């Protein structure tokens, strides 16, 4: 994932080949699989959900700080702020948190 993000932000300067992106794309399915396995092997599912929510909030705050510093929340087409971008396209914790809520409702 780190390699994928480095290539996304510094790709033209690094001159890395295109296949570097594919290495980073393998991380999300692996990350999701391990989180679901963690759900089934944890002793306290509510505490696991709370830790995922804390992780989502920490990464979300980091996304907001990054967006404010780089002004990347400004839509390049109409030059107006798009505050939905504050949710961050790089935060996998939000959808995983929703998956775990679904698992709790489906299997409890």
| Main sheet summary | none
Q: Based on the structure, what is the oligomeric state of the protein chains?
A: single chain
Q: Would you identify the regions where 5 or more consecutive residues have pLDDT less than 50? A: none
The assigned structural class equals mainly alpha
Q: What is the helix content?
A: 55-70%
Give the tags.
mainly alpha; 69% helix; 108 residues
What does this structure look like?
- By secondary structure, the chain is an all-alpha fold.
- The protein contains five helices and no strands.
Summarize the model shown.
With 108 residues, the protein is mainly alpha-helical. Helices cover 69% and strands 0% of the residues.
Q: Secondary-structure map with pairings?
A:
Layout: H1 2-14, H2 20-25, H3 27-41, H4 45-70, H5 93-107
């Amino acid at each position: 994932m780190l390699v994928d993000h480095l290539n996304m932000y510094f790709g033209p300067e690094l001159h890395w080949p295109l296949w570097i992106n594919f290495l980073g794309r393998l991380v999300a399915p692996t990350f999701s699989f391990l989180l679901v396995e963690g759900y089934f092997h944890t002793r306290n599912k509510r505490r696991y959900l709370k830790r995922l929510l804390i992780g989502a909030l920490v990464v979300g705050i980091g996304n907001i700080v990054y967006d404010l510093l780089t002004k990347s929340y400004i839509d390049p087409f109409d030059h107006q702020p798009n505050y939905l971008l504050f949710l961050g396209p790089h935060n996998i914790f939000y959808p995983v948190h929703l998956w775990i809520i679904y698992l709790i409702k489906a299997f409890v």
